[in-house]
Write a structure and sequence with these properties.
This protein is an alpha/beta fold. It has helices spanning 3-14, 18-29, 77-89, 96-103, 109-127, 148-152, 176-185, 192-205, 224-234, 252-255, 267-273, 276-292, 298-312, 315-319, 327-337, 344-352; strands at residues 44-47, 52-55, 61-63, 134-145, 164-175, 209-219, 240-243, 258-261, 296-297. The protein has 16 helices and 9 strands. The radius of gyration is 23 Å and the shape is globular. The structure holds zinc ion.
């Protein structure tokens, strides 16, 4: 049996019908319902035929998908759920073409739209957390397709050309020795298994640091004010930032607890000792995106980064047997909380032009 068949069977067992998806989403959504906008009551009945909650007092109705990522979508909830199931079952990024095939849908655009909206809300979810402790920070270039406005200019070569988009990468990471030291001080915090894994990983990757949470942002430029603004938003003030001493990192000591600059003549040594994780992440994320799209449009790159970070930050959930940590259920939950700002009319022209889409 191939992986697609296994995934489909898993999904079919849990959600055999559209009604089963509606029932599950209703359970997720119910505790999140706001006070009735008309009478302030918090008590609702479920009206099955209308797929809506109805205020017990004044009968005001709130549709099931109101204020969710599915609001205004014409797709059945089951298509949304299956798309979420596929996106959360695979470590790699999936193409909309692949998901369209799996869903057996004739049209490409609704599938593309669902996936982009889900990537959008993954980013919204990640925004509520700040990184803390010790973080590595660096900038990278990702290959992107030119915007129309860029096409008018002649193409510059190499870094800085319109085919490259700058990305800021920040990763919480700690030296392995420090983590082991903390475990020894608080033996309850880690099992022998956890420590064994940590040491095995260190030997395998020759990485002397342990990574925790990460963030990635598309940036217009790598100038100090641009980066300062993102650091202020996404990094806790008590943090130590480790960098290679780029000239755009001049204000970090004013923004956070400590700025450690690691400078060496040997660039590989800097990466190995001080910034291993930002570089592993850049490489892995870039090749993941390239595997499905040779180039992505610059305006969509952030959405792919959102998916990568959202999954990376929940990578231990995938191995957990605890249903509370199921990635699919996590995604369903945030889809009940967040709306996406992405609208088809803003992108339809762009998509019509793409033959490989
Ligand atoms: Zn009411």
């Amino acid at each position: 049996m191939n992986i697609e068949t296994v995934l489909l069977n898993q999904f079919d067992n849990r959600f055999p019908t559209e009604d089963s998806c509606i029932d599950y989403f209703r359970i997720v959504k119910e505790p999140l319902l706001p006070r009735c906008p008309q009478c302030d009551s918090l008590l609702y009945n479920w009206v099955k035929g209308k797929q809506a909650f109805e205020c017990k007092k004044c009968r005001h109705r709130i549709p099931l998908t109101k204020d969710t990522v599915m609001e205004y979508s014409k797709q059945p909830l089951r298509s949304w759920f299956y798309t979420m199931h596929l996106m959360t079952s695979m470590k790699q990024v999936l193409s909309a073409k692949e998901v369209q095939y799996q869903l057996g849908m004739e049209q490409y655009s609704p599938v593309w739209m669902m996936m982009m909206k889900l990537r959008d809300i993954m980013g919204k979810r990640e925004k509520i957390y700040q990184l803390t402790g010790e973080v590595e920070l660096d900038e990278a270039f990702f290959p992107t397709r030119m915007d129309d406005s860029d096409k008018k200019e002649s193409l510059k070569r190499g870094a800085g050309s319109q085919r490259q988009t700058k990305v800021l990468v920040i990763a919480e990471s700690k030296p392995v020795d420090k983590v082991l030291g903390e475990y020894l001080l608080h033996p309850k915090a880690a099992s022998d298994e956890k420590i064994r894994k940590l040491l095995a990983n260190e030997r395998k990757q020759s990485v002397k640091k342990v990574v925790h949470y990460i963030k990635m942002f598309v940036i217009e430029n790598a100038k100090a004010p641009t980066i300062d603004k993102l650091v202020e938003k996404s990094v806790d003030a008590r943090t130590t930032i480790v960098t290679d001493g780029s000239c755009s990192h001049v204000h970090f000591k004013d923004l956070v607890d400590k700025h450690e600059v690691y400078i060496e003549d040997d660039a590989d040594k800097v990466v190995r000792n001080a910034l291993p994780w930002v570089h592993i992440i850049i490489g892995e994320c870039r090749s993941g995106i390239e595997a499905i799209h040779k180039e992505v449009d610059k305006c969509f790159l952030q959405l792919y980064l959102n998916e990568y970070c959202w999954k990376f930050n929940r990578r231990f959930f995938r191995d957990s047997n605890d249903p509370r940590f199921d990635l699919f259920d996590r995604l369903v939950r945030i889809s009940a909380i967040y709306k996406s700002d992405i609208k088809w009319r803003d992108y339809s022209k762009l998509n019509d032009e793409k033959t490989e889409l």
